[in-house]
Design brief:
4-stranded mixed β-sheet, alpha/beta, about 15% strand, 14 helices, Aspartate Aminotransferase, domain 2, single chain, binds pyridoxal-5'-phosphate
Length: about 400
Amino acid sequence: MTTSFYPPQRTLMGPGPSDVNPRVLAALSRPTIGHLDPEFIRMMDEIKQMLQSAFKTQSPLTMPISAPGSAGMEACFVNLVEPGDKVIVCQNGVFGGRMKENVERFGGIAIMVEDDWGKPVDPAKVEAAFAENDGIKLLAFVHAETSTGVLSDAKILCQIAQKYGALTIVDTVTSLGGSELDVDGWGIDAVYSGTQKCLSCPPGISPISFNKRAIEVIEKRESRTPSWFLDQKLVMGYWGGGAKRAYHHTAPVNALYAFHESLVMLEEEGLENAWARHRHHHNALRDGLEAMGIGFLVEEPYRLPQLNSVFVPEGIDEAEVRNRLLADYSLEIGAGLGALAGKVWRIGLMGAACNKKNVLFCLSALENTLSAMGANIATGKAIAAAEAVYNAA
Ligand SMILES: *Cc1c(COP(=O)(O)O)cnc(C)c1O
């Protein structure tokens, strides 16, 4: 007979999912109620309000999609791209490539602006792409590229799009709750995120928001949105319908309790404080790793505090290190992707996982493992270097 599944207790310091706060896990197990129950609708309204604050937007078309971040991405593209539309897509890692896929699958023309993996999107190249191509409808880019640990300047990129009268689609899956994000202030037209990165919540939900300009474009579509499930005009009847909410699909009731709880926690902490917390623990991790002799892939001003891409020491099998960390410490860190596979690790400090205990734990587990494997690192210095950051605060 198959028995119940009990997952091991891990510390999740990879590219996501990250550790889920126990309060959020507790919320998941509360009794399921009907998704049109007045109490559930009241909770949905609270989610919308708290999500607007987290995104820093007033837009009423702000809601969680009942599917992971990739569905939020698809919701933005499927609603805004029509056949023949020209879209500038910035690619400096894995997720820009997926944006291109989305544009092309919905009949659009993707004009690529490429930057090396580990570098931010170059605004000068984006400006040049607008100057060289007429009639660009959209600019799409990733704010926080989780595949490399790079933050791009969303504010500047949106300004360029506005100058040329184009709308923006911005991936904030890893930035929401972890790095400064100001959807209305920067004029982002369509934005999507995820719950399992910096929001201390399990995967499976994708917060999205469309502003007035984006809604107008959606309403004026000539062709029918080729996805029924992600058609925002239909989803709005469910999330935006006030008291007369119409059935669209059955919301993942318990997953939304969890999301609600994670947003309550974000509100309690304060958005700016959450950003500062990610920065603070990143500084401690950085000083600890550097004291060990481990360097960063990304230059300082573009580094994501919540995702640290660091070089694997010479001659060390990076997968062996990750296997040992998992087996001996129940600690998960991420591997490099694409051309960076085998060369870097991706150490996440996201959401509930972003705390002092984890920083010190990760440093000591990594140091012990690497020295046992004979790596050329400096030992006995990392913890003191990290502690110095904490003691200075
Ligand atoms: C994780 C991630 C996604 C995809 O989210 P899923 O929930 O895995 O579908 C998209 N973009 C970025 C930048 C991410 O980090």
